[in-house]
Amino acid sequence: MRERTLKQIRDRIRELGELRSAFVSDEALNVEINQDYLELYEKLISSGSDDYVEEFHTIPVVSGTSSYPLPVDFLKLIGVDIKRSDGTYLSMRRYTKADRNMYSQAGSREWTQYRVRGNNIVFTPEPSWADTSGIRLLYVPVPDELSIDSDTMDGVSGWEDWIVYKCLIKFIGGKEEGDPAIWMQLLSSTEGRIDELLMRDRANPDTIRDIDEEESERLWPQFGLP
User: Fold this and answer.
1) 74 CA to centre of own chain
2) Which of 167, 172, 186, 129 is nearest to 34 (CA)?
3) 107, 126 in Cβ contact below 8 A?
4) Is 87 left (phi over 0), alpha (psi -120 to 50) or beta?
5) What's the pLDDT score for residue 225?
6) Would you say the pTM of this structure is higher than 0.85?
């Protein structure tokens, strides 16, 4: 982890671009820093590098309740796990709209499927069981806004420079005598570095899922019925 504060990022922009406060206020810089931070964050997510920011959220299951609120910082769902009665977890599948009633009579937890609907996640069949940690979500949270000088972001390996150069292109390019060419070159170089390092686990990259095997595990659980 390479934590950088909002102030450190802002100071670096001012130093490299020789930006005086009279020309660009702290408030204006903060707005652009946050905008570019969000863009960098989305770049990581869209490339499949969710593991830089992913988090778990536990849902206490209540018998007779099928809809539960998503985490307040929810952005994107990666996966849903259901806990079997022996304490082990099984990956849950997402049901299609056409199949929303297919398993309505099933009694086993293994048949439970989910769908995100608005700000809630809905399960079918409606749980007839209860468990304080019955379901867990693996998800991507919304990035925190950098609002005060001590707020931090993880620059990973100097990736905060991407934000610095993006801001300099905007502010230097907006000056009549400014030439953003050098910052554009540095931005391109930094972006190339980021693209090269996005995959964190080269030893065991993601593989194609075997849906038939997953369904077999659901129907005939490895450790017996719940």
Assistant:
1) 8
2) 167
3) no
4) left
5) 47
6) no
